[in-house]
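Chapter review. Work through the record for 2-dehydro-3-deoxy-6-phosphogalactonate aldolase before attempting the end-of-chapter questions.
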Amino acid sequence: MSRNIIAILRGLTPEEALPVTDALIEAGITRIEVPLNSPSPFDSISAMVKHASGGALIGAGTVLDTQSVARLQDIGAQMVVSPDCNPEVIAASKAAEMLSFPGVFTPTEALTALRAGADGLKFFPAFKLGVDGFRAIKTILPAGTATYAVGGVGPENFADWKAAGISGFGIGSNLFQPGMAVAEIAANARKMVRAYDEAFS
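Structure tokens for 2-dehydro-3-deoxy-6-phosphogalactonate aldolase:
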């Protein structure tokens, strides 16, 4: 199954990129973002896109401007994730035939993002919004809207978010931290996958 788990590899280096990519794919996580405030992120993303050969959806996070979108298009990235709702970035991402997941927190931001063409909504920081806050916002979203909880979510609360209607999750420090051994990342990924499968089965 293609799980709606986006691995957020903030701080990833180009040297770590391919072993970490392999570990995530093997564990069953096939959506991967490298935030652009990581070391040499475009080098990592370019290498990961070529290495995955279509076996994973590779993209960037913390994308704040259209110039970055253009660079991502040039290296074959498939996904643009942002911390904010910027209609220009969303439009540029869609024009470049990449998936767009902008960050939102309020009903206004959520609907603005969807009107601009977003493929899904990244609710961030999810731990501040809370399950109840998300459940309230979800009532005004169009049916079938893809929603991701990002920030303070993990295996211990996947089921609670699923019950509120979330589609998926973005997982950062609970999965990966700079310098972490690949074996530990792989173990974390397997834990995430088990919890996701239990919650969404």
